[in-house]
Amino acid sequence: MEEQKNKMGEKPVVSLLASMSLPMMLSMLVQSLYNIVDSMYVSWMGTEALTAVSLAYPLQNIVMAVSVGIGVGISSALSISLGEKNQEKANETATIGMALTLVHCVIFVLFGLVVTRPFLQLFTSSPQVLEDACDYTYIVLCVSFGSLLQISLEKIYQGIGAMKTTMILLATGCIINIILDPILIFGLLGFPAMGVQGAAIATVIGQIGAFLLYIVVYLHKNPGVTIHPRYLKLNWPLIRRIYSVGIPSSLMLMMPSLLVSALNGILAAFSEVYVAVLGVYFKLQTFIYMPANGMVQGMRPIIGYNYGAGQYGRVRQTIRYCLMGAAVLMLIGTVLSLAIPGGILQLFQADAELLAAGETALRVISLGFLVSTVGVVFSGVFEALGRGGESLAISLLRQLVITVPLGFVLSRVLGAVGIWIAFPVSELIASVAALILLKRYRNGEFFPFRN
């Protein structure tokens, strides 16, 4: 553990960021692949099944948002405590964080039972689509404890810089899911064909499997922080610190759910094909944004540790190099989306109507990928500094405050294309705002473009 601390504060920033980010980028790529493969298998059952899973996305994303958001809060508090050389506080952070996660597990069972059907009924008039969407959503919400507990442990390991462990275990859960998808969806190897229910069951089994592996790894070797009942106490300042980052981060990650729900309501007035297009896009964009988020995840503990240790020059260096790396990833995504949108969409067995609508959507929305780099990275910077409010403000601009009203207005004139145009416009405005916020915070102490 002492070697890990020395690395965070002393290793050259470029090689440190690469060693911390590459494992997370690889694991994010695997997770993105799982998201896409999941939808590819479902698409073989027809556009209705794909639409059903697309409608389930907002509620499913809420689970991910809460688990990752609170995990980020735990990780931020943990990294700062380690930078301050306060091991007792680090142990309390990990233990209290896991206890809070157990409470969230119970809440999501109740949430899934109460909210699922009334919510999904708002977005489809097709009985078959509704039943498929309910079958899928009940499972991924009510059996979400695997996801919640796994991600909390993942963020604890990331907070101490153990990125290879999180890469291997996250990838293992995703691979379990990918293997089980065709078996349970189509009824291979003697299993009954369960359709979209099979996709949901494969998802939760993968999540539970990853959580159990974390338990095995933790019991085999203590990672440098101890999770134990003796550290479980009502430490309100620490709980507030976790939630001060975790709640804004969760709300930030819920933005796609709110965004998709609002845009589905607008798009359904034109055609349910556009609902499917939006669902496919949000699956595809994870393949672009998740690797960039993997780099941000590698950046956060470095910034948190060096911020706690008072090494602000290293904080600025880390932000600079993360911006450069994320920009390269976004540029690749832009080029592919502009050059071969049809080929990408064919992965989802797109018919002529879905293909035509999807090509236009992908080309227009991708114009915002590169400019979004600043918003994505700076949002992660504010989380690492324990400033959840600024991070949330950037995400609100990126994903809700501008996109929905602007998309609604433009759709009255341009149809569905108006909604696609709102995406890059929102990214541009959010990135400008992010630059201003970081420039003004503590007189630009952490602004990366200063000496």
TrEMBL record:
- Parts of the chain that traverse the membrane: 12-37, 57-82, 94-116, 136-153, 165-193, 199-220, 241-267, 273-292, 321-344, 364-385, 392-411, 417-438
Q: Tell me a Gene Ontology molecular-function term this record carries.
A: antiporter activity
Could you name the domain of life of the organism this protein comes from?
Answer: Bacteria
Q: Which UniProt keywords apply?
A: Antiport, Cell membrane, Ion transport, Membrane, Transmembrane, Transmembrane helix, Transport
InterPro entries linked:
MATE_fam, MATE_MdtK, MdtK-like
Q: Name one GO biological process term.
A: monoatomic ion transport
Family statement drawn from the similarity comment of this UniProt entry? Belongs to the multi antimicrobial extrusion (MATE) (TC 2.A.66.1) family.
Q: Give the protein's function.
A: Multidrug efflux pump.
Q: What is the protein name for this chain?
A: Probable multidrug resistance protein NorM
